[in-house]
Amino acid sequence: MMMENQLPPAVSEETAFSLLSGELTANPFPMLAQMRSQGALAPLPLPMGGAGHQTWMITRMEEAVRVLKDHARFTVNPTSIGGEDFFRASRADATSDQSAFMISVDEPDHRRLRRLVSAAFTPRYIESLRPQIQRIADELLDTVQNQGQMDLVADYAYPLPINVISDMLGVPHADRPQIRVWSEALVTGISGMGRRDEQTLAHMQAFDAYARHLVALKRQHPADDLTSQLVQMEEAGDHLSEAELLSMISLLIFAGHETTSNLIGIGTLTLLDHPDQLAKLQADLSLVPSAVEELLRFNGPVFTGVPRFATEDLELAGQRITKGDALVIALPSANRDEAQFTQPDELDIARTLNRHIAFGQGIHICLGAPLARLEGDIAFTTLLTRMPNLHLGVPRESITWRISSNVRGLTALPVAF
Ligand code: HEM
Question: Strand 326-329 vs strand 55-58: parallel, antiparallel, or unpaired?
Answer without folding.
Answer: parallel
